[in-house]
Amino acid sequence: MSFLSNVYIIKTLSTAKALTLQESQVYRDISEMDIYSDTYFTACFGEGAYACMDELQDTEALADATERFFELVNAYADATVCELNNNVIIIKRGYLKQYFDNKIVGLKNIIDKAAGKDYLKVKYQIKDYLESIDEHVYPTQDSKGHFIQSMDSWLENYLEADKDTYIQIVGQFSVRG
Predict the structure, then answer these.
(1) How many CA atoms lie within 13 A of 58 on its CB side?
(2) Are 8 and 42 in contact (CB under 8 A)?
(3) Segment 105-147, tens digit of pLDDT
């Protein structure tokens, strides 16, 4: 079971330090990424994962940013196939390891204990754990950044799905920080 698909990490190119962003700033599809904005990129580790950098016309600057990116990937993931195309790094296959596991181990334990049970019965335990990671864990916002889906509604929707899907969705929020 992979806990990695659709896990988003936001980092600055200069410091590779994770930024805490509003959910509306988490890009769920490469078509939503603005490669001309600021000096950050968005990385998603997993099948068909992407990382998008700011506009870098200077070859040396691009090479330097690419090198820092791969250092970041090597620190947190095993990216076996990567390519650079038009300033967009595509990670065809990469697996986030210890960094993600440390963040999500508590949630995995909760779900493991709930195996074979009705997941809705443990939703409040999961909700408490998520809030202990990030008090702003809500998955859906409108264009103005207002929440349009409650945590309970979100949990009820996704706890009915398989564990892979739920872990993946939670991951994009829990790895930030």
Answers:
(1) 4
(2) yes
(3) 555 555 556 555 555 555 556 656 655 544 444 445 556 655 5
Distances from the Cα of 111 to the Cαs of 37, 122, 146, in angstroms?
38, 8, 29
Tell me the DSSP string of 16-32: --B----GGGS-SSGGG
Distance CA(86)–CA(27), nearest Å, equals 18
| CA 136-17-129 angle, 5° bins | 30
DSSP 2: -
Domain ranges of the chain: 7-96, 102-174
* CA atoms of 107 and 129, how far apart (whole Å): 7
Instruction: Report if pTM > 0.70.
Output: no
Q: What is the β-pairing status of strands 77-85 and 49-52?
A: unpaired
